Amino acid sequence: MSIFSKIAAGEIPSYKCAESELFYAFLDINPVRRGHVLVIPRREVDYIFDMDDDELAQFQVFAKRVATALKRAFPCRKVAQVVLGLEVPHAHIHLIPMDSEADVDFRREKLQLSAEEMTDIAGKIFSEFQKG
After folding, report:
1. What is the model's pTM?
2. Are 23 and 41 in contact (CB under 8 A)?
3. Three-class SS state of 119
4. Does the pLDDT at position 85 exceed 80?
5. Are 61 and 71 a contacting pair, CB within 8 Å?
6. Contact (Cβ atoms closer than 8 angstroms) between residue 67 and residue 9
7. Mean pLDDT of 76-80
8. What positions carry a catalytic annotation?
9. Average pLDDT estimate for 49-63
């Protein structure tokens, strides 16, 4: 079982931003920007393009809902969607609020946020997600 599967199952704590029966969204613990969210399928699948067409479509629609909530919680020009990930064998989408392309530079130093800040950020996104 991947670390992301354990997070989605509640076996490892996370800063939940959104969830459905099929998908889960939580804050990246090494964010490149405040509000950096990871969106995952609850079903363990390593490669995003191994998902069948219907599941992939639903995954994108869920990610869109999370991105909309993220943009309302943290106003920005756009929300970047990045699919990377060789380190964790579980498909995931990075959603990052951005005002410039430099905001999505994974090589720069990651933010160090307190548990209180992370809880506040996740709460804002979750609240906006609940509004629909």
Report:
1. 0.95
2. yes
3. helix
4. no
5. no
6. no
7. 98
8. 92
9. 97
